[in-house]
Amino acid sequence: MSDFLPHPFWNFSLEVYGGDGVARACLDLQERRGVDVNVLLFCAWMGASGRGTLTVEKLKAIRADVARWQSDVIRPARSLREKIKDLGGSTRGSGADFPAQVEAVRRQVAQAELAAEHVEQLVLAAHAPFGGDRDRPVKERLRAAVGNLGVYAVCLGVTVDAADREAVATLLAAAFPTLSRPEVDRAVGVVAT
Fold first, then answer.
1. What is the tens place of the pLDDT at every residue in 129-166?
2. Cβ contacts of 36 within 8 Å, gap of 6 or more
3. How many CB atoms lie within 10 A of CB 135?
C-alpha cells in the first residue's frame, strides 16, 4: 500500500471500512442495491469531514465521472478475483504447491483491485471542497452524512428499507466514533425492535 498516494478520504475509508461490521454492511448494500462502495464512503466522508452536503445533480455528475472506471476496471477485477477464489478450491495440479500458487495469483489480483479502488477514490475526492470543517458540531456533520447517503439512495432509485438503514447506521457508527450507536440509529431512522 506504500505506492498509494496519501489522501484524507483514503485514510477515512480504510479506518471506517475496518470498523466493526462495516465491510459486511457495505458489501450487503453493494449486492442488494448496486451501491458503489467508494461513492457510499464518499458521501459519508463529505459529511463527517465537514465538507457539507451533496445535491442530486452534483452526485449524478460525480457518479458519471467514475462510472466508466467502475464498470471497465473495478468490476472486472473484482469478478476475476472472485472467479479465482471460487476456482482455487477446485483446482488440482500435479504439484503440492499448485493451490498456493492460485492463492498468490488471487492476492495479486486483489491488490490490483485495491489500487483501482484507490484511483476511483482520488477522482471522487477531487470533487470535494479542499478543506473540511471538523469544528462543525458532530451532530451537524452526522446530519450532512445522512443527507448525502439519502441523496445517493435517490440517485440509485432506491426506496430505503430497514436493512438499508441498519447497514448505513453501521457505516456511520464507525465514521462517528464519538457518538453512541443509539444516537446514530436515531439519525438514520433505525427503529428498535
1. 777 787 899 999 999 999 999 999 999 999 999 999 99
2. 30, 63, 66, 70
3. 7
| Structural domains counted in the chain | 1
Residue 59 CA to residue 63 CA, distance in Å, equals 6
Which residues are within 8 A (CB) of 122 and not within 5 positions of it... i.e. 6 or more apart? Answer: 5, 7, 9, 10
173 and 19 Cβ atoms separated by less than 8 Å: yes
As separate numbers, helices (DSSP H) first and strands (DSSP E) second, the chain gives 9, 0
Position 73 pLDDT exceeds 90? no
Does 70 map to a domain?
A: yes
Contact 47, 81 (CB under 8 A): no
Range of 61-70, 87-96, 148-157 with top mean pLDDT: 148-157
End-to-end CA distance of the chain: 41
33: Cβ contacts below 8 Å, ≥ 6 apart: 156, 158, 164
The confidence score (pLDDT) of residue 9 equals 93
| 179 in a structural domain | yes
The whole-angstrom separation of Cα 22 and Cα 30 is 12
What range does the domain containing 95 cover? Answer: 8-188
